[in-house]
């Protein structure tokens, strides 16, 4: 598992038909906890998304909102990319 300080939040558009997706990588959680956190983040952003291969994806550009939500839950997350 990655260290707790390696959580990254970024926005991706590649391979998604030009649509933006906010990606959360590096959370030190098991699959069930990751799925629960993914649901919380999707609800906080009011949009859909998925959890696969240890990565949470939320549809749309919600980097700031997700960073705030993770901070509130006690996770140390940093913005990655542009």
Provide structural commentary.
A hairpin with a 2-residue loop joins strand 3 (49-52) and strand 4 (55-59). The protein is 30% helix and 28% strand. It is built from two helices and five strands. A five-stranded mixed sheet has the order 3-4-2-1-5, with helices on one face. The model has no long low-confidence stretch (mean pLDDT 89). It has a single domain (7-80), classed as 2-Layer Sandwich (Translation Initiation Factor Eif1). It has 82 residues and is of the alpha+beta class. It has helices at 31-45, 63-72, and strands spanning 7-12, 21-25, 49-52, 55-59, 77-79. The chain is globular.
Descriptive keywords:
SUI1, 5-stranded mixed β-sheet, Translation Initiation Factor Eif1, DENR/SUI1_TIF, single chain, 2 helices, about 80 residues, SUI1_dom_sf, alpha+beta, 5 strands, protein biosynthesis, mRNA binding
């Amino acid at each position: 598992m990655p260290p707790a300080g390696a959580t990254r939040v970024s926005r991706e558009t590649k391979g998604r038909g030009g649509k933006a997706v906010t990606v959360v990588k590096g959370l030190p959680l098991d699959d069930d906890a990751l799925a629960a956190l993914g649901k919380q983040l999707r609800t906080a952003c009011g949009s859909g998304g998925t959890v696969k291969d240890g990565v949470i994806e939320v549809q749309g550009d919600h980097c700031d909102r997700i960073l705030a939500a993770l901070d509130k839950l006690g996770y140390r997350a940093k913005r990655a990319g542009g």
